[in-house]
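Write out a record, fold above all:
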Amino acid sequence: MHIDIYSLRFIIYPIVGSLLGFITNFIAIKLLFRPRKKIFGIQGLLPKRQSEIATRAGNIVNDHLVNSESIRTKINRERLLGAIDRFLDKNDQKLFGIPVSSIAFMKGTIKKIIASLLIDRDGYLKRRVIESFIDEGMVSGIVEQKINSFDIGIIEKLVKKASGPEINFIIFSGAILGFVIGLAEAFIGL
C-alpha cells in the first residue's frame, strides 16, 4: 500500500494545527498566572496587576453585587426580631439593673422598641442605620484587601475552581480550531 505524499498533508496539517492550537491556548492560560516574579521583563497578568484587579473587583462587587443597600434589604422585620430574640436568649442582659430573663414579659416590648427604631415603613433596616456602620467603600475595601492579601497561587486555585471545566474547554477548543485550520490548509494546498 502506497501513501501519496500529498495525501499525508490531510493527516499532518490537522495534527500539527491541533498541537499548535492546544499549546498556544495552554501557554496563554498559564501566562495569566505565571511567571509569578518578573523574568526577562515578563510577568503573569495576575501577579503583575494584582492590586489593580483587586481594586476593580472590589468596585464591581460594591457597585453590582453587595453594597449597603443590598445588605439593608436582607435585614427585614422578621429577621431582625429573630436576631433580637436570639440575642436576648443567649445573653443575660440587664434592663435598668434587672436581668431581662427575670422580666420576660418585657421581652416583647423591648423587641418592638428596637424594631421601631431600626426598621423603616417598608419593613427593612433604615438606610441611615445601615449607612452608619457600612459605608459604600467598606465592601469594596474588604474585597480589595482580601485579594491583595492572597498569594497568587491561591488566586490561581480559586480561578481554576470557579471556572471549572471552562479553562480546559478553552485549551481544547484551541486544539479543535487548530485541527480545522490545518485541514483547511491541506485543502487549500491542492
Notes: The mean pLDDT is 86. Residues 5-76+119-188 form one domain.
